[in-house]
Amino acid sequence: MNILNKSIKSSVLFKFETINHLQASEKYLEINNKMTSILKTVGSAVTGKFLEKPKYEKTSSSSSDDDVEERHYEAAKWVSTKTMGMNREEAVSAGFQRLFKYITGTNENNQKIDMTAPVSTKILPGAGPNCENTFTTSFYIPPEHQDNPPKPTNPDVFIEDRPAMDVYVKSFGGFAKEQDWLSEAQKMTEQIKDKTTINQDYWFTAGYNSPFQLFARTNEVWLIKNKDKE
């Protein structure tokens, strides 16, 4: 009888231990999958490799010098946030943090979304020299979420339907600072022969690399072409 009781007790304990082990394994896998997804997003952001980018085609560059490229971007959805301030670097940093939280699950579906490139920032200058600028920082939404992107839960983050646009693009390398962006934008403006083709209301910066990437960095300045001049 004692042997039978011991056998039954051992069997029950084995079953409980097996169930606990399976539950722990499932929980571990769930956590591991979440961490893998986040690390994949972070890793892509750091290396800049294999990131989805908005679709465009190169168009005529007859109105500018060779190092100013003209592109036609297709209409697409971007996730965006606005920040007011005088300094682009501070504004982009604040905007990036909001958007990164969105793609790592701070949305109505608690859904992870892959990082994309570039991080674009629309700069709407203030009315005067001492007025704050409006910075709209955006991540391109990857193709698999274009039709129905998860709705942001942060009221400062929104889905933007960006229309098709024709842009002048100037690329440069290195770690771009405030003066670098302004200097490159000024150079590009001087290179474009017909100034009436440039939208003077706002302009864009586009960064393709994380702060951890030391070499082969790509930065772009975008000037938008007036629709009536296209």
What are the salient characteristics of this protein?
230 residues, alpha+beta, Multidrug-efflux Transporter 1 Regulator Bmrr, Chain A, 9 strands, globular
Description:
The protein is α+β, with helices and mostly antiparallel strands and 230 residues long. The protein has a domain at 67-225: Regulatory factor, effector binding domain (Multidrug-efflux Transporter 1 Regulator Bmrr, Chain A). Helix content is 33%, strand content 25%. The chain is built from 3 helices and 9 strands; from the N terminus they run αβββαββββαββ. The protein has helices spanning 2-47, 88-103, 178-191, and strands at residues 56-58, 68-73, 76-85, 119-124, 133-140, 157-162, 165-172, 203-207, 219-224. Strands 1-2-7-9-8-4-5-3-6 form a 9-stranded antiparallel β-sheet, covered by helices on one side. β4 and β5 form a beta hairpin. It is globular and about 50 Å long. It starts with a helix and ends in a 6-residue tail after the last strand. Residues 35-40 have low confidence and may be disordered. This is Heme-binding protein 2. Belongs to the HEBP family. InterPro entries: Reg_factor_effector_dom_sf, SOUL_heme-bd. It comes from Mytilus galloprovincialis (Mediterranean mussel). Pfam families: SOUL.
